[in-house]
Specification:
The protein has 412 residues and is mainly alpha-helical. The protein has helices spanning 4-12, 17-30, 67-77, 82-85, 94-103, 111-123, 129-139, 152-165, 174-187, 216-231, 239-255, 281-297, 304-316, 318-321, 353-364, 372-376, 388-399, and strands at 35-36, 41-42, 45-49, 59-63, 212-214, 265-267, 272-275, 279-280, 334-335, 340-341, 344-346, 381-383, 385-386. The protein has a three-stranded antiparallel sheet with strand order 4-3-13, with no helix packed on it. The chain is globular and about 60 Å long.
Length: 412
């Protein structure tokens, strides 16, 4: 699958070519099993159930359904040739399946879900884009001047959707709402920190959690601000948005683990790591790449070395190699025969005790690490499930562009 992004990665580090090709083929092969043709939706997850006998292969069970994962799958799969999109959507193309999602929007009450469907409608140039934007406007209060606090991820998806729709229509006040969405995201930062908290304002989180932002709270705003800048280039762009994206990208790359890990929880007040684990596969192969590659293409700093280091983690996984079980090679997170990548490496601590302790501790004493927890709960557990958005973002990261209107190269 040859694109500008894959070509650049292979040129910089040829040894990664087989891994990237393997992952992209796996995404395309694994997504059809996550689609339910009778319901015309995507499952929430495929999770391994306990094998019946010791040593037996895992059996995967489909669980739940997800509008947002369906929309994210569209965002990535639309970049495939049409004949290769149809097996993923029960015979439809990505654009045709977007129509199914738009028709269901009147029943959608989650802001993030609606934003992603609107983003998909914009990127596929769907004729009912205005319907999607109208539903998005009904679920957000951007027209009121001082919008209510939102979860940061959902606020970022709103901005990305409006940036994608910019120039396609203005029947729903895209320009005005985009400016408000952009300002809401920029104001969410605490003091001079380049990182983002979990919500754009008070009231959504308890006091002891309000300073913490997860990895998704960094990558989605970073991506949205870079795309907002590019979408406005006909009027000079948005250098303030690009600078904020650049600062966020630089900081998460400074904090990246020696083994390429993209850490999970950050202190949005001072830009430090609160708790590193879990390390998620989707962060390594998809979310960090799509955000940082968008940033570079928008005119920000090129963090290609960090992207490549994060991708290498998928096969090297130092956490599992350090486990020392004596049972041979550690478990692989890439399971070609099952059509999945295992979701994460985590501590296995009861009720996420380490995360909670470090969250509260860092609130009271910024920078507090509680190091003994590392010995009691080492990160050697594997979460054996896989969700559609993991493959959707992977395709989006490596086959796409920060400018959805840019012509795509041939993908073989």
């Amino acid at each position: 699958m040859t694109t500008t992004r894959t070509t650049a990665l292979v040129a910089a580090e040829p040894a990664l070519a087989p891994l990237l090709e393997r992952l992209l083929r796996l995404a395309e092969a694994g997504l059809p099993a996550m689609f339910r043709p009778n319901e015309e939706d995507f499952v929430f997850t495929r999770a391994a159930v306990a094998p019946p006998l010791p040593g037996a292969e895992a059996v995967l069970e489909a669980r739940g359904e997800s509008v947002r994962y369906a929309a994210i799958t569209v965002l990535g799969a639309r970049l495939l040739p049409e004949e290769r999109q149809r097996p993923l959507f029960g015979g439809r193309t990505a654009a045709e399946y977007t129509g199914v999602l738009v028709e269901r929007l009147p029943r959608v009450t989650n802001l993030g879900d609606a934003a992603l469907v609107a983003w998909a409608a914009a990127d596929t140039r769907h004729p009912k884009l205005e319907d999607a934007l109208a539903r998005l406007a009904a679920l957000d209060d951007l027209d009121e001047g001082a919008p209510q606090p939102r979860y940061t991820v959902e606020a970022a998806w709103v901005l990305s959707a409006l940036a994608a729709a910019r120039g396609l229509t203005d029947a729903t006040g895209v320009e005005r709402r985009l400016r408000t969405a952009r300002d809401r995201l920029l104001r969410a930062r605490i003091g001079s920190s380049p990182l983002f908290p979990h919500a754009t304002g008070p009231g959504l989180l308890p006091w002891y959690r309000s300073h913490v932002g997860c990895f998704a709270d960094q990558t989605y705003p970073l991506q949205a601000l870079a795309r907002a800048h590019v979408s406005g280039e006909h009027t000079g762009g948005d250098e303030t948005a690009l600078a904020a994206a650049d600062a966020c990208g630089a900081r998460i790359c400074e904090l990246q683990g020696e083994g390429g890990q993209w850490w999970w929880h950050y202190d949005a007040r001072d830009g430090s790591v609160v708790e590193g684990y879990p390390v998620y596969s989707v962060h390594q192969h998809a979310m960090a790449p799509t955000a940082l590659l968008d940033l570079a293409e928008a005119g920000g700093k090129d963090h290609g070395a960090a992207v490549r280091l994060g991708l290498r983690w998928m096969t090297e996984v130092p956490e599992l190699r350090a486990r020392g079980t004596g049972a041979g090679e550690p478990e692989s997170l890439i399971r070609d025969e099952l059509g999945v990548t295992w979701r994460k490496v985590f501590r296995g601590d009861p009720r996420k005790a380490v995360r909670a302790a470090r969250g509260v501790g860092s609130r009271l004493v910024p920078g507090l690490r509680l190091e003994p927890l590392e010995r009691y709960f080492p990160p050697v557990a594997v979460d054996r499930e896989c969700r559609p958005y993991e493959f959707g973002w992977m395709l989006h990261a490596w086959l796409g562009s920060v400018d959805p209107s840019a012509p795509q190269e041939e993908k073989a």
